[in-house]
Amino acid sequence: MNGLKKQFILLISVATLIFLVLHTAVIYFFLSAVQEIVFQYLFWNYLSFFFFSIIFAVTLVKVKNDFSENFGYIILALMTLKTALSYGLFEFFVMESPKDLLVYKYNFLILFVCYLIIDVLVALKLLNNLE
């Protein structure tokens, strides 16, 4: 496996663990009234975003040298695809939830923004290393 792939997978894994611990602690200590309901969906959302980011990073590493002239367009296309898939997850996990809680929407938005930041950092690192 390529060194960049390992580095990005490690970065995404560590960031996921940190986000999960902090997010769980906030829900546990501050939202105790709804924690059982939220914990059911939180794990699946984290797992989904984790795999989306891994696929994003591995795909960018693979196409970096072959399509260096169009690399920016590939990043935009993958980000758009990830956003569309995230919207599908939002419809499935949040809008179809048993109770209409605003907490679901905030949790999903927090996860989306955190993983978007990770993806932007991965893309930025690859763009800076482009030969």
Helical proportion?
A: over 70%
Uncertain segments: none
Strand composition percent: under 5%
Give the averaged pLDDT, no decimals: 78
What's the order of the H and E elements?
HHHH
- Main sheet overview: none
- Cα gyration radius (Å): 16 Å
The dominant shape is: elongated
Alpha-beta content class:
mainly alpha
Walkthrough of the structure:
The protein is mainly α and 131 residues long. It contains 4 helices and no strands. It has helices at residues 3-30, 35-63, 71-95, 102-128. Helix 3 (71-95) runs antiparallel to helix 4 (102-128). It is elongated. 19% of the residues are buried. The mean pLDDT is 78.
List the helices and strands and how they pair.
Layout: H1 3-30, H2 35-63, H3 71-95, H4 102-128
Helix pairs in contact: 1-2, 1-4, 2-3, 2-4, 3-4
What are the main properties of this structure?
131 residues; mainly alpha; 0% strand; elongated
